[in-house]
Structure formats: structure tokens, C-alpha cells
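Feature request, filed as a ticket because there's no other form

It would be nice if the structure record came with a short human-readable summary line next to the C-alpha cells. Right now we just get the raw output. Example of a typical job, pasted below so the devs can see what we mean:
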Amino acid sequence: MTIDLKFEHVSKKYRVRQRGEEDGKRHPLMRKLQSLRSRTEDFWALRDVSFEVRSGEALGIIGHNGAGKSTILKLLSSITAPTTGEIMINGRLSALIEVGSGFHPELTGRENIYLNGAILGMTRRQISARLDSIVDFAGVRQFLETPVKRYSSGMYVRLGFSIAAHLDPDILLLDEVLAVGDAAFQEKCLQRIAEVKHAGTTIVFISHDLAAVERLCDRVILLQRGQIVTIGTAREVIAQYETALSPIKTTQRDETLANQEKLAEVRALSFQDSSAHAATVLHTGAPFVARLDFFAHADLSDVVFELFFYSAEGEQQCQFTTEVSGAPIHLKRGAGAIEFSGSGLGLMPGTYYTDIVIKPRGTPKFYDWTQYNFTALRVAPGKLVRGKFYVPHEWRLIQDDEGDKSEEAEAVMNRVGS
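Raw output as currently delivered:
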């Protein structure tokens, strides 16, 4: 079978300039002079990576942030060049790497469609034949003659994905494209990717949405610190990603814990999505419920429940706790449950592991402690945000008194993340 993509012993090195601790306190001119003499260190984003992608195959690439996933796509897109090794590309390639990649901000949506098609080597007639389907899929018809610099980030990515998926490339590169729009549009994206794959297009797909990777990809590469850990079927590699790279258990469950009193026990932890359905996958920015089932062996006063989330590297990401609510919790003997709910999940896409504590308030003792990795939670892309976490927020527009009062009234309160 024809090989469309090939990495052969590819490595990518960056030079990282080291900044002194006192640099921020110095005069800007002194900082500039110091930077000319500061030392640099080598950072290898990729090290000796080799793989092949067969014609018509869908290859997924997964791994933690900083593992080297996006570096591979940038190398394939010729955004950057390898330090060592060779890359072979056989066919016309289209890439959606980030929001608005390949767009000229001053051009309209229509003009950018033709520009992207021309870059792919398509004629104006070929692009025109696909124009209606591109616009309808992206849902931007009424803004087609508007410069894309005025598009929202969601409109940017919807149009970018639609162009990339409708101009019939031989090879399609996709990096976190499902972090767009609502759940209905994300499902449209998945269906379109499946159609493109069925038509014989070779696909390289990067996503933190492991369910989507398993659904679409024939094979998956697991990256860690710029190197390939394993290559195999989607199910096998995803299972390894969720287990072998889970946080190290710093305390074994069979150890005797001197300050533990088993007067209450954790029985289960489950999650519900915005539709109140049981879920193993939640979405960034979407409403959620975390339900903790327990059993109390005695009547207990002023009990605190804590739920911790850890990254796959074992770094604590956030905590849910009843301790800050102010209202004491008194338990009766028997089974019960505590529910944590939120209007928008703050965790960014990835796999997280939980740690649960039941304890009396204000003492070093505790009733139960699950001691890391009690259960795993997948977080898939949802709200289109950047950074390390998402915070539901509001904004309001305040205009001068001379402005139109009715317009101001309409724009007083707008919710983001509700």
C-alpha cells in the first residue's frame, strides 16, 4: 500500500534562552544588554521519531501537553523544519493547526475560501463548486462578505475546519479541531471527518478527546517528552495512556494509616453532564455534577468532603470541598451521597485522576482517603478558550450617557460560559 507520510529519525531542537532571576528588576536597556550575553539551553521537542501513515489511513496522536504532538503537525505543514531526519509527503496537504490558521484577517470569508483553495492548487471553478457546502457547513453565510478579523473565534475555526475538510486534500492534518461550537457542531465535525476518511483521504488527528480518537483512528501514536512510547490500535494505546501514565501512588493502599478512622467510607464517584446523564467524558466549560457515594458507620458531626483532581503527571489541578461552604454537614448512620455541581467545568481537555477525602473538620484525622487514582475522568474540548483552566464569567458594556439608551439596555449583561 502507498505511503503518504513518513517520518524517518526526525528530531526538532529549539534554543531556550535562560533568564536571570533579577532580570525583571533591571532597566530595560540593561536587560537587553544582558540578554545578548545570557546562556541558552537546548530543548528537544522531538527526538528520533519514526513512523509511516498509509494512504487512506487515519492516524491519531495523543499525549500530555508538551509531548510534541503539535510539533509533528508543524513539521508536516512546513511551518518549521526538522533539526535532523527526513520527512516524506506524498500528495496535496491541507492543515488546520490553530484558530484562523491560513486566514488573511483583512480579507472576507469568501476571499479566504478562494485563497485557501488556491494555496492547495485548486482552480477557481473547483472552489466555486464547493463554496455553498463550505459556507453552509460553517454557518457563516450572513457574514461571508465580512472581513474575518471581525469573526468570533468560534466562527474562525468553523470556517477553517469547513475549508480544510471540503477542498478534497490528499492528506488532512487536524489539531484539536473539535474545540469548536456546541455539541451539535462537534458531532457534525466528527461525521465530516468520517466521510473524508471513507473517501480515501489520509488523516493525522491530534485531540485530547480520546473518545473521538478511538472512534475515528485506525492507529494511534502515544508521545511522551518528544519520543514515541508506543504505536498500536486506538483501543490499546488509549488504554495504556490512561493506566501506565497515571499518577504514581505515593502511598500504598495496604499501608496502615495511623490517623485514619474508618467511620465513613467512599463507595463510588460518578459524573453527570449538562443533561443529567451519567458520563465518563465531560466538556470544558459545560455544566456538570460530581456525585460521591459514601457509607457512614456511625452518626458523625461536622464532616468535610474533598475531591481532588490530578493531571496524568500527578500534579494537583483543583479541589472541590465542602469546607468553605460554612454550613456544617452532619451524617446519619447508613448510605448517602454528596453532589458537587458547577455551571462550567474549569478543567482543560485531558485525562484527570481523582483523590477523595472524608474527614472531621479542624483535625488531622480523616475517616477515609482514596489515596490517588480512585477513578479517571476524560475532559473533552468544549468552550473555545486558551490557557491552563477555564473560568465561567460575565461581561457588560457601559456606554456614555449620550449613547442610545435602548442599545445599552440590550447589552447590559452577557453571559460567557453559561
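Something like this underneath would help us a lot:
The first strand starts at residue 3 and ends at 17.
The radius of gyration is 25 Å.
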